[in-house]
Structures are given as C-alpha cells and as structure tokens.
Amino acid sequence: MSWILHITTREQWESARKAGLYRPASLDTEGFIHCSTPQQVIRVANAFYRGQEGLVLLCIEPEKVKAPIRYEAPVEEDAGGEERFPHIYGPLNADAVVRVMDFPPGEDGTFTLPGGIA
Asked: How far are the Cα atoms of 8, 16, 95 from residue 110, in angstroms, in the given order?
C-alpha cells in the first residue's frame, strides 16, 4: 500500500471525520495540507512535534483524494535528496483516510513509526 501520511491531533481528526472534511488551519495560511511519505514522517515529527502527546497519523490513500496532490521539493534544510513531499492543495475528504494510527512519542520525546507502516 502506498499511503501518504499526515500528523494531526486526535481532536482535530475526530472533528474533521464528523464533518467529512479535514481542513486544518494551515490550509488558510499556507494553501495546502502538509503530508509525508513513511520515510519523511519521523524527521517531520521529531522536528516539529517532539514530545507532543495526543497525535495520530492519518494514512491517506492518494487515489481517493479529491483535491489536487503535488509532489514538491522539501524545504531548504531538508534538501539534498530526490524525494518529494506530497502536498494536498485543498481540503482533504475524510473518506480518503483509510487508517488512523495513534502516534505517541517515546520516553525521550522522539517518535518512531508505528507497526504496519513500511
């Protein structure tokens, strides 16, 4: 399975799931939803969410996403690789989220991928 992943809080996801549409605040300020591939999610989590509790990983099936997806170069400090970050330009339809996984930090505040994510 080729998922793209998004880190959010359980509270934000539950609200979005009930509404049928995930529309984080960053959509208004940055114009797209930040997502990651499995290889990128740990780097993103440890850089921006270190030690934060109550997070989940949304496992998104790209074929089900109704908004445009663009695979773009990472920010400068992550440059150097060929890999691109998937960005969803517009609200995410909740039915594109095929799995939601708890994403707690370890005792030292850092994250590791949950089982089932390759």
From this structure: 16, 26, 30
pTM greater than 0.90 (yes/no): no
The pairing of strands 55-60 and 33-34 is unpaired
Cβ count within 10 A of residue 11: 10
Residue position matching structure tokens 């663009």:
70
Query: Do 102 and 114 touch, CB atoms closer than 8 A?
Result: yes
CATH number for region 4-97: 3.20.170.20
Q: Which helix (H) or strand (E) holds 82?
A: none
**What is the band of 51 on the pLDDT scale with cuts at 50, 70, 90?**
very high
Query: Is 103:114 a contact under the CB 8 Å cutoff?
Result: yes
Structure tokens at 57: 């990983």
